[in-house]
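Dear H.,

Thanks for agreeing to be a second pair of eyes. The structure we're designing against is below in token form, covering all 245 positions.
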């Protein structure tokens, strides 16, 4: 049974949904709403791939596939004189219009956006942490510690282990905000926590395992393996699962 497609976030619907090629009697090309959003963010707004993927809440490889498909459709319609109709796609419309607009995107890209710009910019990255093993703790809502890394110039400048003071689940988003974290690496993470992180503007990389320090090194090298559609339905202390790009 195929895995359901995760909904892609878009920030506006098109003003015009049909473009007609004069005299065309050929098959109409369907451009989905997420494909249009990918074109808008990359080619109109001018974000890099990582910034676009972050805003649409998809992985970088998924975003690239969406963008490639959209460009191929538009190019084919222009070359062969086909009509273009825009509709459909697995999408959800964000009510935060500012996040999708050009001014906000360019202003915040340096803060939370481009993986390609990590070597030049400063940021704080948190990892759900098991101090006994040094590994990534596998249940976000039950984590008792975050290890917080100050990153700059493509390196870890310093790190510290911070207690959550017994707070769990929904309160952990607030803890991360207080710590100044702009992204978090974790194991399992439930849908409610994911939504809370999105609203707080904190990027998350779920489904990760292994040593926390190594995960951060992989993050800096753009080699971190994570699960784009991670869900956490297990309520024990730990649970296992593989990671992928």
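And this is the sequence the design step returned. I haven't edited it by hand at all.
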């Amino acid at each position: 049974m195929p895995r359901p497609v995760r909904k892609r976030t878009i920030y506006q619907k098109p003003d015009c949904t049909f473009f007609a090629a004069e005299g065309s009697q050929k098959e109409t090309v369907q451009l989905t709403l997420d494909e249009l959003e990918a074109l808008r963010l990359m080619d109109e707004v001018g974000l890099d791939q990582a910034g676009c993927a972050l805003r649409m809440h998809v992985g970088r490889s998924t975003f690239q596939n969406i963008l490639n498909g959209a460009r191929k459709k538009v190019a084919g319609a222009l070359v062969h004189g086909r009509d273009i109709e825009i509709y459909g796609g697995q999408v959800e419309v964000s009510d935060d219009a500012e996040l999708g607009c050009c001014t906000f995107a360019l202003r915040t890209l340096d803060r939370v956006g481009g993986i390609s710009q990590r070597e030049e910019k400063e940021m704080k990255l948190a990892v759900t942490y098991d101090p006994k093993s040094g590994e990534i703790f596998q249940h976000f809502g039950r984590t008792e510690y975050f290890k917080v890394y100050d990153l700059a110039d493509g390196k870890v400048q310093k790190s510290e282990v911070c207690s959550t003071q017994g707070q769990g689940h929904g309160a952990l988003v607030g803890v991360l905000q207080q710590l100044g974290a702009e992204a978090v690496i974790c194991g399992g993470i439930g849908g409610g926590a994911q939504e809370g992180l999105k609203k707080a503007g904190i990027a998350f990389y779920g489904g990760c395992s292994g040593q926390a320090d190594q995960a951060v090194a992989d993050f800096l090298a753009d080699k971190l393996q994570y699960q784009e559609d991670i869900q956490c339905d297990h309520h024990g202390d730990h649970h296992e699962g593989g990671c992928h790009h």
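Two observations from my side: Helices lie at 33-45, 49-56, 60-80, 97-100, 102-113, 171-179, 191-200, 212-220. Residues 60-80 form the longest helix (21 residues).

Warmly,
E.
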